[in-house]
Amino acid sequence: MRRLPRPDGLPAGPPRPGNLPPEMNRFVGRAAELGALRGTLETARLVTVTGAGGVGKSRFAAHVAARTPGHLREDGVWRVDLAAVRDPDLVEYTLVEALGLTDHTTRAPRRVLVDHLAERRLLLIVDGYEHLVDACASLVRDLLRAAPALRVLAVGRRPLALEGEHLFPLAPLTPQDAVELFADRARALLPGFTLDDGQGADVLEVCRRLDCLPLAVELAAGRLRALSPGQLMERLDDRFRLLTGGSRDALPRHQTLRTAIGWSHELCTAQERLLWARLSVFAGQFDLEAAEYICSGEGLPAETVLDALHELLTQSVVIREESRAGVRYRMLDTVRAYGAEWLEQIGDAGRMRRRHRDWYLGLATWCELDWFSPRQSEVAARVDVELPNLRAALEFCLTEPGETHLGQYLASTLWFYWAGCGRLMEGRHWLDRSVELDDPVDGEDPPDYGPSRLKALWVLGYVAVLQGDTVPALAALQECHDEAEHRGDATALAYAVHRTGCLALISDDLPRAERLLRAALASYREIGELNSNVLMGQVELAMAVAFQGDLEQAVALCEEVRQVCEDHGERWTLSYALYVLAYESWHKGDLPRARQLLEECLAIDHEFHDLLGTVLSMELLALVTLAEGDAAEAAVLQGAAGGIWPSVGLPLFGSDHYNEPHRLCETRARATLGDVRFDELARAGERLGHDEAVARALGQGERNRLPATVRPALAKALEKREPAAFPYVNDGEATG
Question: What is the CB neighbour count within 10 angstroms for residue 729?
């Protein structure tokens, strides 16, 4: 939230930095335009930087945004790149992801965005939207109306055509700046490069022939290992004269860039051209392993992909970037589009898209298995960076005839990401689509109830349960149960029973919840199923018996889960077991142990962006804090939990049992503080941002210190807003 005045004098947290990546090389030129755009942003709430492809719009806008006065971006600069998005329905989800939002409810993503931005003062860069202009314009209009302190810097080849939009056409570089850019990039490739010995005139002519377009200039500079500036100028001039029939000025600017890209393409070897075309199937970033699998084949053996990729990097066709998942690569959209056209022309696009789909099906399968291991944090980070490619694979499956079952498989295999990493809203989108596509139409055959559809149904039910959307949840789980029973699919049946028991638990039907959960766990043992889901079922059973008064059995169940989690390096389910153990410690009056367990629990939940676990832990931590004698801090923490619940769903599921710690804490804190002071402190806690609330809950004085093994990881997660790597002792084996 925007830092509002606080009645209790709580210190404001540090401003959220946003998500702008650091600049990897020197920004060159455009001094006048930089100042002009900064001035426009001071007075206008919607500014659109337009210009031809390759003119440097994205880099220019990001460079200006990072230097915008602080009072215009108290809540940071946030950038959403829509170049890789093909489905207009995904524009809102992509922005939710870019803003780092987590929402477990059934609210539409646009509602989530409106609510989040309403009181924030930030600068939003919307880049690469021109192929989605209608969907993007509608979203930007609604956000600007709802958020009076929001500023939007749009970047595209065409305007959004909205009221109040200020256009900022970006021209190519001046010849002097273009020469400086060429020399700067040349020195990165050849450290001894200078403009002496008459090379300056040739470089100037190259830049002029390329209309001083930054992308074209950088592509030309990437050829200096093989060609001198003079040779570059001669070859480029020959190509332009051939294309224009001898007229040096016959090409319009956008054709100049296309010609420059085509010329660079022609100068590549056959293998480099083939790799360029095949790499165009990636949406956003990719890694070497994916490139080697997807792009290798006829004409490009796997062992040659690395060398060809290295050459494309040298020539600025491909860009190298660092990410949480390691070294990644990407192509600028203009360059990728050229490769995609080439791929279509050689008739290989369909095969490449299927290979791309196959790779990401395999990646999702591996990640599901590896989720139940010490590598949970790595899996979460990997899926985060691969989300654009996973979306592309899902879209292919759900639009290609005969591929629906693979879309169901992929959407359901990612259950751990949807449920465990705060992506319920998008997961629901894909699961609903995959199941609806296979629904029967009047007069047609019923859907194929194979393993993929059955899994999609129980995962859909699971996600809907977590969202508090009980009617669709029950419908999906009942359908899964009936068909699994009819077809003898013991695995799908066990999961349907399990998740129906979970629904009964949050609905306060504890005897039924206990019966169903025990039945599901017995089935899991019979079929040999062991993973995070199975362990979560045992934790849910512990909650059911604890709420019925049998804390001793609840502790025994959770201690067993704790041991299995430690043996396998599992952290996500462990946090829920720790919650139950903390509940029992509070009940016994062992406050130090309760606090220690909740601190570890809260750190893990924050690591995985699990809002449900976070808010449950914070509610119980408020009660522990009250029992320790600090009613004021308990009120702040309870208010902070209240600020998170709208992103989770119905507070405490509307459950009397889950609500008991909250009710008890509020009643006792009000009795100590009085209603006026309690409400004042609770409102102050509610205004804390998510990260601020977690930091406050875990950082209050010496009595609130984190365990030594957890503290560095949490600090990293809070600083970078990304999954942190927790230290593990035991190796674990993945069990599906």
Answer: 8
